Amino acid sequence: MFTPAELLEINALLTPENKIVILTHYNPDGDAVGSSLGLKHYLKAKGIHAEVVVPNDFPKFLKWMPDAKKNIIAEYKRKYAFDLVNDADVIFCLDFNSPSRIGLVGEWLTNAKAKKILIDHHQQPEAFDYVYSDTVIPATSQMIYHFIEAMEDEKLVNQDIAECLYTGIMTDTGGFRFRSTSATTHRIIANLIEKGADPALITSNTWDTNTVSRLHLLALILGRIEVVCNERVAVLYLTREELKEYGFQKGDTEGFVNYGLSILGVKMAAFFMEDLYEDFIKISFRSKDDIDVNQFSRKYFNGGGHINAAGGKSYESLADTITTFKKKIEEDQL
Ligand code: 5GP
Ligand code: MN
Q1: Tens-place pLDDT, residues 127-170
Q2: I want to staple 18 with a disulfide (CB 3.0 to 4.6 A). Which of 84, 89, 206, 233 is the partner?
Q3: CB atoms inside a 10 Å sphere around CB 200
Q4: pTM, entire model
């Protein structure tokens, strides 16, 4: 948590006169959108207006969250988003640890005059004016709850805040399953339910949203899943042609990599996907126990993230990327 002195300084910055922007990472996920909107609704409950800016669009299954449709998408409203970031007095940076993770907004953030406040749970954060980084907490949305507690504002938690933070925690813990899910996480979830978050409704709004095209894509990649490295590593992939053929929409492949990790004995899963428009391969890594995919992705695939969940990019062809990957896991004896 921020130190008591830092909290006093942050509190002094949170005034209705100050222009406040909340930023989150490229390809926003449930935790990115949930933590950003949770913080926005908390500030609103304090009488303070804030704008949420996201670098690019986010999946439809997150748009039911209160105010999600008011998020400013920088890719679509470039000038407006730039002005917000450039003119801001305070910028909250949520669920990312480096300006390189927020696409075109990164340069705006670096040059902005605002006080920059980081709240994030990824490994190896860069410098910001105020940093609350904790890589043991499973979701930035949980950290927003801790921030509200530290500000002694728990009484302000309302249904909007509760729904957003619940969604962020639920999605980033894979439905309260992943390793850093703690008793504290569940206590906070219990509080959020008491404040009006409805578990059945949130789960259904977020996860019972499959399209037929998504299920067909899933069937395709499950049909050819490969297990290598002494049955310890699962490999999945999708080509651009296939994405086009199945009418891919943003978010359609979310969670696919986890199927690889659900195979008995598998300790690491990698999902390689050709980008629909640009010439690179987007990679998702997931792992169990002490297999550190953050380090692995940093070392070989221009990426990073958490110990058990990371992403990266490759500029080789899909086939070459998968060959390189298989070589590296053998070399590193994963
Ligand atoms: P996903 O596989 O869901 O895209 O990402 C898994 C985790 O790794 C997320 O927490 C995400 O923020 C992080 N991540 C994904 N891609 C990158 C990347 O290129 N660089 C870094 N540093 N982190 C990434
Ligand atoms: Mn997160």
Answers
A1: 999 999 999 999 999 999 999 999 999 999 999 999 999 999 99
A2: 89
A3: 7
A4: 0.94
Domains and CATH numbers, the chain: 4-207 (3.90.1640.10), 212-331 (3.10.310.30)
Tell me, what's the pLDDT at 334? 77
What is the rounded CA–CA span in Å between residue 9 and residue 62? 33
pLDDT tens by residue, 233-290: 999 999 999 999 999 988 899 999 999 999 999 999 999 999 999 999 999 999 999 9
| Nearest bound ligand to the CA of residue 28 | 1
Angle subtended at Cα 133 by Cα 129 and Cα 136, rounded to the nearest 5 degrees: 180
Nearest-ligand number for the alpha carbon of 141: 2
77 contact partners, CB below 8 Å, separation of at least 6:
none
**Using alpha carbons only, how large is the chain's radius of gyration in Å?**
20
C-alpha 174 – ligand 2 centre gap (Å): 11
Please report which ligand is nearest the Cα atom of 100: 1
Q: Answer yes or no: is pLDDT of 333 > 90.
A: no
Phi and psi torsions of 324, nearest 5°: -60, -45
Ligand 1 atom 16: residue of nearest CA: 311
- Measured in Å, residue 143 CA sits from the centre of ligand 2 at 10
179: which DSSP letter? T
Contact 84, 20 (CB under 8 A): no
Ligand 1 pocket, residue 101 CB under 6 Å: yes
